[in-house]
């Protein structure tokens, strides 16, 4: 058997007949792998003598490899369902496959595109593509889109044409654009790529300039303009989908823990800001230190209104200020491997979760900052007013400034206890497990966060003091009872002196038995 012709198809009933007719005189077998077409593609291919295999779509690379596995010929010609072999090319292929000593084992063939019913010769569309080779001499990558052809053989060019009927109209172009750009975005996500606004805009602009001006697309007239314009839209759409997909998935391994106690109005504002993030967390866990029914009802209302946000209520009995225990219970329920901890009296900047995730670093925990509000400004915020830099009644105004460049300059990594506040911190869960979480022997206000930081330092972690990112606004409230502070200072001093690494009463008290939602 000399030549196997391979084709992948999906809903190509208007083109597949013409494609198969063009190879009838040279093909010893035609292999069609159809991706569950809903039209007459498979029926037409069978009537033209092709062997048809219907398979679920796996991506361009895997689908074409499925074709290659089924080809038995000495030579393989792999074409698309919207391509036609010109009469001149048929004769050229005959001479190659029947030659006792062909000039190469692998050939690139010139592709001539027909777009919007016009022959396109400029704009970078007139190109050579690998289509003909001896069986086994070319491998195809398993990429879902923009698959790569690899060979160790010398590649020769064939100037005779494959005629490629791309798009008959704008509607068809846009339909394919939507499908191809989604596949491209998924492929980029697998590689961990992201796209900034500047990247999206610059790539879109450059694509148009390159095709229409640098590659002389304007010489193809109105159709050349359309191709350059819509190709730039394709580029913009691909990277926009990538950006959207990237941010939708960025928080998939992150749990947000919100500590609260009997202040449902503040918790409501905090939750609303958490639900308005550029990057949503995998789950939101309310670490409730014994709040009354009003808070329980509030959380239930949010759970019903935002079922996709996976809001979990972790409640414990009110036996005094036990923030460490409350947080440990919540952390034990977390399924994310990265934990962000905040207080329920904070209003979060919409980039808060994004900033924590992007700044995470192995061997570090993050300490964020906050803006302090006066009773008057806090009341205004709770009534719906948005704060700005020039408002009166706000302290630490520089903590309202979000700037990536300033953040890189001002953010420091050290082992200093100064500025430790659990109202805005984040950790790798594995580090919290190593130190057994918060020390529950510390009760009442103060030092449970600093004591945790000491134990993290003692196992080799550092503090990343984050500035100009992960912004929060603290709602004013009266100071908590500090009668236990002296005792808690002793716990902290002992942790420093003994180089303590694990809490005596901590995360290990809960385990799987507390993994259910409250």
Keyphrases for this structure?
transferase, 9-stranded mixed β-sheet, EC 2.4.-.-, 8-stranded mixed β-sheet, 16 helices, Spore Coat Polysaccharide Biosynthesis Protein SpsA, Chain A, Nucleotide-diphossugar_trans, Glyco_trans_2-like, Galactosyl_T_C, alpha/beta, single chain
Count of DSSP helices?
A: 16
Count of individual beta strands: 23
Per CATH, the class of the largest domain reads Alpha Beta
- Shape descriptor: elongated
Distance between the termini: 68 Å
Radius of gyration: 32 Å
CATH-defined topology of the largest domain = Spore Coat Polysaccharide Biosynthesis Protein SpsA, Chain A
Q: Which blocks of ≥5 consecutive residues have pLDDT under 50? A: 513-518
* SS content category: alpha/beta
What does this structure look like?
The chain has helices at residues 16-23, 41-47, 60-70, 87-97, 170-190, 197-214, 221-250, 264-274, 293-305, 323-333, 352-359, 375-382, 404-410, 429-435, 448-458, 485-498; strands at 3-9, 29-34, 51-54, 75-78, 83-85, 106-115, 118-120, 127-134, 139-140, 149-150, 155-165, 254-260, 283-288, 311-315, 338-343, 346-348, 364-367, 371-373, 394-395, 412-414, 424-428, 462-465, 472-474. The chain is of the alpha/beta class and 518 residues long. The strands form four sheets. Strands 1, 2, 3, 4, 5, 6, 7, 8 and 11 form a nine-stranded mixed β-sheet that branches. An eight-stranded mixed β-sheet has the order 14-13-12-15-21-17-22-20, with helices on both faces. A hairpin with an 8-residue loop joins strand 9 (139-140) and strand 10. Helix 6 (197-214) runs antiparallel to helix 7 (221-250) and helix 8 runs parallel beside helix 9 (293-305). The longest helix has 30 residues, at 221-250. It is elongated and about 95 Å long. It starts with a strand and ends in a 20-residue tail after the last helix. 39% of the residues are buried.
